[in-house]
Design brief:
This protein has 351 residues and is α/β, with parallel strands linked by helices. The chain has 2 domains: 3-267, Spore Coat Polysaccharide Biosynthesis Protein SpsA, Chain A (Alpha-Beta Complex), CATH 3.90.550.10; 270-350, no CATH class. The chain has helices spanning 37-46, 63-69, 87-99, 119-133, 177-186, 200-210, 212-219, 228-237, 243-246, 269-277, 336-346, and strands spanning 3-8, 54-59, 78-81, 106-111, 115-116, 139-143, 154-162, 165-172, 189-199, 255-259, 263-264, 285-287, 290-293, 299-302, 308-311, 316-320, 325-329. The termini are far apart.
Length: 351
């Protein structure tokens, strides 16, 4: 049974503005100096998935970025979306495409824009998920939480299948601080990493049952001659909805593989600091020409040679680009989307 990997590369990463822009979203940023997020995702999959079986789906507007960051991919391994419709249509389109390559295949779906440390631990979790998927069930990965995080979704564990595999009781959206603290204390909850493993044929059956309008739109693509026009028409017919809402939250019997590898969806500048320094560090993250005096816990990044000097300030984010400067308290990271919303109305060229 062939195993395909599908990298979801359609995200926008608005909470990392002004680093992440419409013409260069988060997955193409070099969070690690030597590789972009999408390159890191591809490389960790390449350790156990044949290169010819790794596929990427993303916006047609970013085709040149995908090809430049992943030059080894053939054109047939890059699925381009004519418009953005969230993860449910993207996965349905890819599953129809991969089903015609191998109806008996298993697909591993991973976002392109996440950070993962301890990559061998992650690989073992994915291999366990593939074993579980062979039993005709949908499997997801759950990351063991290390703090009461309100920026992530959660998975509540149910019956234990083996020491690392549990049935899923429910998926929970981003909680309040109080609820997140109770989740952490209970030990029954995992962070939802948005990583899924399943048999291709099974997933298409689930779409047919739970999201028939999406199933039908993409099923029609492969009757007769495939064309870009047919793909564009399919995307006009489908809703903008995530795989979680369209499929996962409607299912019984989903399994979750618990893993303790270091993970972040890098959904904010605060999470950037926690990746590299840990949540309580007083050190500064400095990717700029800086001078800091009595300044701690700051994140400073600049795309210019301008000298950035910080004196007597703490826990700030200072992001300097050619055309925009963002300064905020690190704990306000989740609210960058408010800046983006305002810019969309009065200065859209900065997005």
């Amino acid at each position: 049974m062939k195993i395909f990997a599908l990298i979801l590369a359609g995200g926008s990463g608005t909470r990392l503005w002004p680093l992440s822009r419409k013409n260069k979203p988060k997955q193409f940023l070099y969070i690690e100096e030597h590789r972009s997020l999408i390159q890191a995702t591809y490389q960790r999959l390449q350790d156990f998935i044949a290169p010819q079986d790794i596929y990427v789906i993303g916006s047609a507007a970013h085709a040149h970025l995908i090809k430049s960051h992943l030059p080894l991919l053939l054109d047939e391994q890059i699925l381009l979306e004519p418009s953005t419709r969230n993860t449910a249509p993207a996965i349905a389109y890819a599953c129809q495409y991969l089903y015609h390559k191998d109806p008996q295949s298993i697909v591993i779906v991973v976002p392109a824009d996440h950070f993962i440390g301890d990559e061998k631990i992650f690989e073992q979790a994915l291999k366990e998920a593939v074993i579980q998927a062979h039993q005709s069930c949908v499997v997801t990965l759950g990351m063991k939480p290390t703090r009461a995080e309100v920026g992530f979704g959660y998975i509540e564990k149910a019956r234990m299948m083996n020491p690392s595999v549990f049935e899923v009781k429910q998926f929970i959206e981003k909680p309040s601080v109080t609820v997140a603290e109770s989740f952490l204390k209970s030990g029954h909850y995992l962070w939802n990493a948005g990583i899924f493993v399943f048999q291709t044929q099974l997933m298409l059956q689930l779409y047919q049952t739970h999201a028939p309008e999406i199933f039908t739109a993409f099923k029609d693509l492969f009757f007769g001659i495939y064309s870009i026009e047919k793909l564009e028409q399919a995307y006009l017919r489908v809703p903008d909805i995530s795989i979680d809402y369209a499929i996962m939250e409607k299912l019984q019997g989903i399994r979750v593989v618990e893993t303790s590898c270091k993970w972040s969806d890098i959904g904010s500048f605060l999470s950037l600091g926690e990746i590299f320094l840990g949540p309580q560090s007083a050190d500064n993250i400095e990717q700029a020409n800086t001078l800091t005096v009595d300044a701690t816990g700051n994140i400073i990044k600049s795309d210019t040679k301008k000298k950035i000097c910080l004196l007597g300030v703490h826990d700030l984010v200072v992001i300097n680009t050619q055309d925009a400067l963002l300064v905020m308290n690190k704990n306000e990271s989740q609210r960058v989307k408010n800046i983006v919303a305002q810019l969309a109305m009065d200065t859209p060229e900065l997005l």
